[in-house]
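BACKBONE GEOMETRY TOKENS:
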Amino acid sequence: TSGALRYLTNWGERTIAVSEDIRDYLIREYGLPREQIIVTINGIDTEKFSPAVSGDRVAAEFGLDRSRPVLSYVSRMDEDRALAARHLIAIAPALDKAIPGIQLLIAGGGNVFDGLKAQSEAVNAALGRRCVVMTGPRTDINEIVAAGDVFVGVSRAALEAMAAAKPVIVAGNEGFLGLFGPEKLEKAREGNFCCRGLPQCTPELLLDSVRDAFALPAEERRRLGDYGREVIGAYYSVRRMAADALEAYRQARGRRSVVLSGYYGFRNLGDDAILEAVARLVKRAGDGAVDLTVLSNAPAETEAAYGVRAVQRFSPLAVYRAIRRCDYFVSGGGSLLQDKTSAQSLLYYVSLIRLAQLYRKPVMIFANGIGPVDRPLGRKMVRKALNRAGIITLREESSLRELQAMGVSNPNIRVTADPVFLIEGVEEAEARLLLAKAGVPEGVRPLVGVSLRSIPGLERSIPALAAFCDRIAREHGARLVFLDMQDPQDGQFSRQVEALMRTPACHFTTRSAPEMMGVIRCMDAVVSMRLHTLIFSAKQRVPLLGIVYDLKVSAYLEALDMPSAGSADGFDADRAAAAFAGLMADLPGRRARLEQVVPGLEAAAAENWRLFSQLLNGETNR
């Protein structure tokens, strides 16, 4: 199918392909998810193709002498399929000399049949007998196969002959394998008995193989035939195909598919932590019967890291296909609906929501931080999209106030918490090994993590940030570890700060949220601009100090009852140093406060999954 018709094709929850070639074709041409395709075999009916089937009727019809050798061949007689037939006709005189009285039974019709028939008649005339029999198109292939002593062919025809316990020479347009036996099973299966990647079939190779096959003792030919039938029973029987089909139905029955949109595939550890939490728990919410597709900037990396399907978020066609085929659409988490980054970003995320709603997909706004949305058109877009959403969960109370100010009146709004509160860090022993690899000396105390990010205009605060970091190290005897959450942006910025510092510091970066969380557990305190570093710290009950660049940071500092070092814009090193001194003076009290507050946030984060389960079960009003 080509052109616009391709995009009208609906492939369902599962697709059964009878070869890996067809699977790859469906992925390439139609964009089907690999994990939704079940590869089976083009099963052979081992009762229809059996040693018990007689070839006598066919032999009588074509005047074959059953007391003399018969070689059978079956294929379409088309230009792209009849190479072996052409070779057999060409070597018939040589075969007649090597195997006196041999008869070639060639079945099939196609666009080169007339030419091949004329050649066979010329060979017969030259030999003075009917050596080559061209049957034309037939439906009684099992009897054609039964009439021969040895079979030549590829693909399904070769498998059918093997089911009939005939010795088979595997040869065709794509290559030459020769007389099939145990030593050739692996190569044969690699190419689905089509000879792909094998040497080209030539008249000389075919002549030698046919001559060798008929030269074998009858007992040896029988042994090869029996082995071929065993292979069909083990790998290619219609029973195996039926079992694969039943498995496809089992997988499809009751399955649901979810498309997840967010800031994924940008090597931002905070957003990747959200994805890790979602990927782990979405399937749990659906009792393992949920297929998750992520819109990602780096689909291959996302698939490898999280075991989900991913498509390129900037490919309109891939996004359209994913949303059209899904059952549910989830937007989040993170701060997606805001125009501080850019109006284009807001337009992107709202457009995806509206596309899903256009196709009547239930929509969940998942653990979002909302705003700021300053442009009137942007506020109108958000209001219209979210009033039609099935469920909206928000990361903090300030996001609820922002939606209320926009006029969003959806009754299905709940304030929960960031899903990252449900992730656990690696064990302490593993975390200390990671710190050692990063060059952090063993036993140094206090150990302070610093998480910075670059925002427009912050360059002018680099000297003040460096002075603040130096004071932490000098006044508290601390060893600083820069926790770079987004690679390479955070590392580049923190190294600019380090370049102006007088005290040494280390850097730690990873693509794994549990690793970063485990390393943070080893810290005595954390200073952070990044929201998810704050959340990681709170999760590990490590006291923290926030540098505010966005309302979401101040909102979580308030929720956690943790101090602020002030604004990132116009950063004041003296104020920040005083705030840090206050934090260090009351570390036990701050840890105790986190012990009180964080369990409630963990429970609120779990509420996202309960509400998502409601969406899957159709328990919402929209």
In short: The chain has a mean pLDDT of 93. The radius of gyration is 35 Å. DSSP finds 24 helices and 21 strands in the chain. The CA atoms of residues 43 and 240 lie 7 Å apart.
